[in-house]
Each structure stands twice: as C-alpha cells, then as structure tokens.
Amino acid sequence: MTAQRTLILIRHAKAEPHGSRPDHERELAERGVRDAREIGRRLKADGLRADFVWCSTAARTRETWAAIVEGSGDGALVDHDRRIYDASPRTLLEVLRETDANIGTVVLVGHAPGVPALAAALTEGNATTDFADHFVTSGVAVLGVDVEWADLAPGTADLVAAFVGRG
Q1: Domain locations in the chain?
Q2: Are 36 and 59 spatial neighbours (Cβ–Cβ below 8 Å)?
Q3: Which H/E stretch holds residue 144?
Q4: How many CB atoms within 10 Å of residue 58?
Q5: How far apart are CA 109 and CA 62, in angstroms?
Q6: Tens-digit pLDDT string for the chain (167 aa)
Q7: Dmax of the chain from CA atoms?
Q8: Which of 92, 99, 98, 137 has its CA nearest to residue 117?
Q9: Is CATH 3.40.50.1240 the right assignment for the domain spanning 5-164?
Q10: Strand 52-55 relative to strand 77-80: parallel, antiparallel, unpaired?
C-alpha cells in the first residue's frame, strides 16, 4: 500500500493590474503579498510543510511562494518550471508525475484556469467544492493522494482542506 501523500495546490496571490508589462512579468500587488504571507501562516499552523515545490516562472507566482515562505518559514527546494505558466490540467499532471517518489508533500503554485481545473479533475467524484467558481487568487486546496506521484490521475485525490489566504 502506498503511503499517504499531500498535494497543496495554490493559485498565485493578487497581482498588479494588466498594464504595459507582459503578463509573465506582472508582480504581486501589496494585498497579494499580505495574502500570500497569510497562506504561509495558515500552512504552518496546520502543520503543513512542503518537501518540494513546483512553481511557475511568472513573477507573481515566484513572489507568491517567497511571501508564503516569509509567513511559514518553509524552505523547501523549488523548481521554477516554465511549463506551469498558462498550463492545462494535463500539462500540470505531467509536471507533478515527475516528482520524486520519496517526496511526501508537494506544493504547486500556478495559475487559473489550470490549477482550479486540476483540483477538480484530481478530486473528481471525491469533493463537493466547485473549484472553477471558488478558486480565487490566494486560493489553496490541500489534497490527500494515495497513489505514487507517477500514477497521479483524475479521481486519485481527496479534498482535505480548502481556504483562501487573506491577510
């Protein structure tokens, strides 16, 4: 039997409005920094520490994770992967399946609509939350996974907790 794994899916915190910068370079708004720190505090309070982090290369996701670390003190190894930016749920699954089998808790920091759609697919039939409608910025879904990372597929996770970081 496979040991229980934990997957923490995080949609980046509130970013600055679209402007003259390319979307990939948009940074967090002040509120986003506060909200991400609150995510970190909440994860710490709940005893959730990442063993490994997959993070989009976009500025707002990198800054989200940095602020989460400020709030939690978590110093897990981070892989900033370009594939996560603007990724489909299928691509996000492919990335997650590359996680080392010895890793127990993985965080993925990404974007909508990919992250909410992935949460919905992984918990297919196992959760009552409508992730497409309720996964706002700074949204977090904590999933329990009973398969190897390489075997992660739709319907293989259960929703353990969901919250929105607001600081």
Answers
A1: 5-164
A2: no
A3: strand 139-145
A4: 25
A5: 8
A6: 456 999 999 999 999 998 888 999 999 999 999 999 999 999 999 999 999 999 999 999 999 999 999 999 988 899 999 999 999 999 999 999 999 999 999 999 999 999 999 999 999 866 656 666 678 999 999 999 999 999 999 999 999 999 999 97
A7: 52
A8: 92
A9: yes
A10: parallel
- Give the Cα separation of 2 and 154 in Å (integer): 17
pTM: 0.95
**Residue 98 vs residues 8, 10, 53, 81: alpha-carbon distances, Å:** 16, 18, 12, 12
Tokens of 19: 């402007």
Residues 6+ apart with CB under 8 A from 79: 52, 53, 54, 55
